[in-house]
Protein: Protein family PM-1
Organism: Prochlorococcus marinus
Amino acid sequence: MKTNAKIDSLQLMLTDLRTRNEHIRHKAAFKGCQPEFQSLVSKLINQLEEELSHEKKNLRNI
Protein backbone atom coordinates (compact mmCIF):
# COMPACT_ATOMS: atom_id res chain seq x y z
CA MET A 1 0.00 0.00 0.00
CA LYS A 2 1.19 3.50 -0.78
CA THR A 3 1.70 5.83 2.14
CA ASN A 4 2.10 9.52 2.58
CA ALA A 5 3.20 11.86 5.34
CA LYS A 6 -0.36 12.86 6.31
CA ILE A 7 -1.47 9.24 6.73
CA ASP A 8 1.65 8.47 8.75
CA SER A 9 1.12 11.48 11.02
CA LEU A 10 -2.57 10.65 11.55
CA GLN A 11 -1.70 7.08 12.50
CA LEU A 12 0.99 8.26 14.93
CA MET A 13 -1.37 10.77 16.54
CA LEU A 14 -4.05 8.10 16.97
CA THR A 15 -1.53 5.75 18.55
CA ASP A 16 -0.45 8.52 20.91
CA LEU A 17 -4.03 9.34 21.92
CA ARG A 18 -4.86 5.69 22.54
CA THR A 19 -1.79 5.22 24.72
CA ARG A 20 -2.60 5.94 28.31
CA ASN A 21 -0.50 8.92 29.32
CA GLU A 22 -0.93 8.58 33.07
CA HIS A 23 0.78 11.90 33.90
CA ILE A 24 -1.76 13.88 31.86
CA ARG A 25 -4.69 11.80 33.12
CA HIS A 26 -3.59 12.35 36.74
CA LYS A 27 -3.53 16.11 36.11
CA ALA A 28 -7.05 15.93 34.70
CA ALA A 29 -8.23 13.93 37.71
CA PHE A 30 -6.56 16.39 40.12
CA LYS A 31 -8.26 19.34 38.42
CA GLY A 32 -11.60 17.49 38.50
CA CYS A 33 -12.02 17.40 34.73
CA GLN A 34 -11.40 13.70 33.97
CA PRO A 35 -14.80 13.07 32.30
CA GLU A 36 -14.48 16.21 30.17
CA PHE A 37 -10.90 15.31 29.26
CA GLN A 38 -11.87 11.77 28.24
CA SER A 39 -14.78 13.10 26.20
CA LEU A 40 -12.45 15.41 24.27
CA VAL A 41 -9.96 12.59 23.68
CA SER A 42 -12.76 10.37 22.34
CA LYS A 43 -14.05 13.10 20.03
CA LEU A 44 -10.55 13.79 18.74
CA ILE A 45 -9.93 10.09 18.10
CA ASN A 46 -13.18 9.86 16.12
CA GLN A 47 -12.33 12.95 14.09
CA LEU A 48 -8.81 11.69 13.32
CA GLU A 49 -10.10 8.23 12.38
CA GLU A 50 -12.51 9.82 9.91
CA GLU A 51 -9.74 11.94 8.42
CA LEU A 52 -7.43 8.92 8.18
CA SER A 53 -10.13 6.93 6.39
CA HIS A 54 -10.69 9.81 3.98
CA GLU A 55 -6.96 10.11 3.25
CA LYS A 56 -6.64 6.37 2.62
CA LYS A 57 -9.58 6.47 0.19
CA ASN A 58 -8.02 9.42 -1.62
CA LEU A 59 -4.70 7.56 -1.87
CA ARG A 60 -6.39 4.50 -3.38
CA ASN A 61 -8.11 6.67 -5.99
CA ILE A 62 -4.85 8.16 -7.25
